[in-house]
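Hi R.,

Here's the chain you asked about this morning:
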Amino acid sequence: MTIIPTAIPDVKIVEPRIFGDARGYFFESWNQKAFAEAGIDCAWLQDNESKSSFGVLRGLHYQAAPYTQAKLVRVISGAVLDVALDIRKNSPTFGKHVSVVLSGDNKRQLFIPRGFAHGFAVLSEEATFAYKCDNIYMPNAERGIAFDDPALGIDWQVKPETWILSDKDRRHPRFADAEYWE
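And here is the predicted structure, written out as tokens:
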């Protein structure tokens, strides 16, 4: 597999080696040794999957300490624009984000370390999204940041009139008013 750096060094794109033939394809989505050698050394505790339709925008989500989470995200089918926002107060990239198109075709994964808010917008008719977390989901630790805060400058690549949002995602505070990760 190939690890591709992003503008925020701790966020990494993972491109697997895909082996294809007349039967279909095979690839490793997780290999502890290979990931550790690339600086991604997590003990995954939970796997999640969601299915969403075009225009669904989820995020920007994170969990407060002690339930912060690193994530390894990928798209099984369809395509999304995936966004990782640095909320580490003492980071040189605090308030900056990385966005990457993940799709069932490109098989790319995005590693998002602890200290980042995460979200995605569905670009295809449907998308099945899967992710590993290195900590359990804890409802009382759940936090969010307004996905459309102009201060963040995120281009979600989906027109606002097509956004489909949860009520919760509509009510997240602006970045300036959010709780940050120490």
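One quick note: The chain has two helices and 13 strands.

Cheers,
M.
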